Amino acid sequence: MFNQKNSRRFFLQGAASLAACAALQPATAQSRFPSKPITLVVPFAPGGNVDIVARSLGVPLTKLVGQSVIVENRAGGGGAVGTGTVARAEPDGHTLLVATPGQLGTLPEIIKLPYKADSLVPVALLSRTPVVVVVRANDTRFKTAADFVKAAKAAKQGVTVGHAGPGSPNHLALLQFEDSAKAQVNAVPYKGSGPALVDLIGGQIDAVVDQITSSTPHIKSGALRAVMVLGPQAGGLLASVPTLSQLGLPAFDATTFVGAFAPKGTPAANVASLQGWISKSVAQPEFSNVIRDLGSEPVGDTGAALQRLVDGEVTLAAQMVRQGRLKAD
Q: What is the DSSP letter of 285?
């Protein structure tokens, strides 16, 4: 017989079941990743190589993760501002840094920062890009690479060259060029390649050390011209552009890599998921075709490969600091 006592017992059992289900819901929701939009922080101004790579990645990545992917530019300090922002972010994988290994490997060697090389976890490699010296196409002083080298050597700080900021790959490449050519230029730091290229086109500076990715649109438009490649011989737009070794100068490889990093403490499962999604995104035409058209090369490699590049940057930066050739501007 169903009496008041049974009714009370069934009510309590039902309430207990509902409470148990309610207790499970937060854990289930918490394990779902991503549970909100993913933000890609670019530590440079819009228009540069890293910015282009991040925005190109956002298109296929949005489709794979099922969430919006937002690109946020946090320029300043040669990349230190944006990198610090991600280092302090919630370590859940929803905020990533898209940057070069130099932001972790070089900057901590030259600037007092609230983060270290191990403050972020490498997630995946995205691209590799040749580094070039570009000048205005109509600048008759630098018709050839030899003209540029001669001018740079002729007068101390007689040639003004822009770069993406203290400690950036472009800055290191410029320092290595000075060492190779036994020259000293007037180096001008910017908050990214974009603003530097604007000033170059406007005639405020003589040249820019830049990744080909961000210079390509201006080269194709006829505004700029690449005079030399600071690394191995490249193809495409750079097929006829000489390298340092072809100019008889000691060679070095300033090829720039761009990768994605997550805050230290991000769950390993989330990092693994991000690495898989990013590797798939890099292979998609929305990313790979855009990057190749701009003279770069998509690279869907692992976080371990990115970590090796960071370690190499630490070694190079420490060496340059000891030699007095690298310091904060």
A: H
The label of the residue with tokens 């972010």 reads: 89
| Of 211, 205, 263, the residue nearest 86 (C-alpha) | 263
Q: What kind and span of H or E run contains 98?
A: strand 95-99
Instruction: Note the pLDDT tens digit of each residue in 150-178.
Output: 999 998 888 999 999 888 889 989 999 99
Euclidean distance between CA atoms 248 and 95, whole angstroms: 45
Alpha-carbon distances of 143 from 181, 226, 253, 300, rounded to whole Å: 18, 10, 24, 37
Q: What is the pTM of this model?
A: 0.81
Tell me if residue 159 falls in helix, strand or coil. Answer: coil
Query: Which residues are within 8 A (CB) of 44 and not within 5 positions of it... i.e. 6 or more apart?
Result: 50, 51, 73, 75, 79, 82, 164, 165, 168, 191, 192, 193, 194
Among 298, 124, 143, 131, CA closest to 214: 131
Cα(264)–Cα(72) distance, integer angstroms: 20
Return the residue matching tokens 């003589």. Answer: 206
Packed helices 212-221 and 193-201: angle between N→C axes, nearest 10 degrees: 30
Q: Which amino acid is at 274?
A: L
The CA-to-CA distance between both ends of the chain, in Å, stands at 87
Residue of 264, 269, 256 lying closest to 295 (CA atoms): 256
Rg, the chain, Cα only: 24
Residues 6+ apart with CB under 8 A from 37: 67, 68, 69, 70, 94
- CB-CB contact of 265 with 91 (8 Å): yes
